[in-house]
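User: I'm putting together a teaching handout on how sequence relates to shape, and I'd like one worked example. Could you take Glyoxylase I family protein from Marinagarivorans cellulosilyticus, show the sequence you're using, and then write out its predicted structure as tokens right after it?

Assistant: Happy to. First the sequence, then the structure tokens directly below it.
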Amino acid sequence: MLKGVHHVAIICADYARSKTFYDDMLGLRIIAENYREERDSFKLDLALPDGSQIELFSFPNRPPRPSYPEAQGLRHLAFAVENIASVVAQLRGHGIATEAIRVDEYTCKQYTFFSDPDGLPLELYEA
């Protein structure tokens, strides 16, 4: 019935800062960028290499995330990577802090967390 995740939608506080983060720093490819005047909102469609997408929205007067990271709702967004140490080094080269690399006790795979410009928890998972 379900074939996979098509996209994840994120509402950001500072559109230009988040666009730079997801495009320039994480390397997601821009598919489309639209300004919706009636909503005073940008919508940026970004692609990952596997075809899944992130929709980045800006909206005026949006409330902040209630708490980190255990707020009800989406807990975090995880990205699959081939070499976690190399991706962590790239992120740190951009000044992005990451937690220590840990090992999943059930799968024995390495993972770590970092945050986007709005504090949204993001995970790297070595697949």
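A couple of points you could highlight for students: Residues 1-61 form a domain with the 2,3-Dihydroxybiphenyl 1,2-Dioxygenase; domain 1 fold (CATH 3.10.180.10). Helices lie at 15-25, 84-93.
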